[in-house]
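User: Show me a protein chain along with its predicted structure.
Assistant: Here is one chain, sequence first, then structure tokens.
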Amino acid sequence: MEVLQIKDLSFRYPGEEKRALEEISFSVRDGEFLVICGESGCGKSTLLRLLKRELSPFGEVSGEILYHDTPLSELCERTAAAEIGFVLQNPESQIVTDTVWHELAFGLESLGLDTQSIRRRVAEMASYFGIEEWFYRKTAELSGGQKQLLNLASIMAMQPEILLLDEPTAQLDPIAATNFIGTLQKLNRDLGITILLVEHRLEEVFAIADRVFFMEQGRLTFDDCPKRIGAYLKQHPSHPMYEALPSATRIFNLLGEEGECPITVREGRDFITRNYRNEEDTLELSPYIHREEKKAELKEVWFRYGKSLPDVVKGVSLCVYEGEHFCILGGNGAGKTTLLGILAGILKAYRGKVWTNGKMALLPQNPATLFLGKTVREDLQEACELMEYTSAEAERRIAEILERLGIGHLQKMHPYDLSGGEQQKAALAKMMLLKPEILLLDEPTKGMDAGAKQTLSQILNEWKEKGGTILTVTHDVEFAAREADRCGMFFAGELVSTDTPTKFFTKNHFYTTAANRISRGYYKNTIRCEEVAKLCRQNGRKAGEKDA
């Protein structure tokens, strides 16, 4: 039975010549799990919001959206609100009350349910999602993972038929993200909830999706099972989304294999161990030698947000050198963002020494806080005025950074109208115009597609080669494994471990890459797909073996 039908759906934002969506048509069967992917700005979020009447963007719409054969616009308010649930990217933006229990009850109260029904549903959802231990806590005290789980539980309390989720794991640490995706799978499998998920983290969601939608420039260009998108993108290896494929698929393609590709860690591991030898099982490492000049240093730094509150940063010591990219990983609420605030001078430690050598710029977790102008270009011009560039120099620098980041087409748009990934790029452009010596980045890849991450990496590497220093807080393990010179694990306010990426990630089970999980115990020192493929080629195929 089809629960959703979209027919020739097109959409144009006010004042824009180009449509954000172009004649999108598809149907969704009851109980399906669909993943929608594509580059930032391709129309994924716009499509999803048009399916939730209360969140539909303002603009010119044509085509039809049918829910159980009824036009979305004709649904009664109760049905539209309760039966089509929506989870936003930012956990903070969806919470409306001050306590967990009240947040769970809020939607039910809005629907006018009686007290007994509300209490029963709230208790059921709290039990199902494991919320009992923090049921009476303030929502402001929750970690990012807990807030997103609460958002999902609050929606589920209204017993929706469809769940729409717009990059719900973008701000979650790897463990919280895995748990959240596991919960979605459980809801789909156990309760038959229909799920449409917009996501850039494809490593885990491909394995549980029934279908994958691939969007390009407002159009739906691929609609098939996950195992076939690898073959589709293999024909276009330079495509920006190629690097977004699951690691098992990328290794398969790097080795030039044909046929149905593996998509899970287990399938990738099985493919390698069945088909490739491991006599030469170790990848040789080059030693990492940092430059001598220090650019930022913390010595025994302690910080708390109030005298009567617990310490958030506890005796942290850290040194970052010129031309180095240092990545800090750790769970939501561990104190990573606070540490950046201390380095940037926004927060003052009550004990310890904070020292920096050079001009700093901080790209915050929420890039929207940096925007002051009505358009992206106005914001960039504001940065140029701060640097006292001449008019000609400002024009040249703005043109260069817009082209470099591929956001020239966004310069006339209001920053708040951009997608999450586009906001990240616009904010980075503003930071780079300030010509800092030390760049502090808080979740810089949040909401970015694979192509945008590659562009970011190229810019950071070029800037680093000129002596720039980078300290990044990130949940993006794959980004850290590829770009960092050193990595640190932050836990409960302390920097508990630092090492080079290979040594750091090969010793972890959860804070590690999919490529390392695939090759662990079979090959050593492999944390990237290219490294796994390299050892496979060096060892060659097993005699008489040919992958089926």
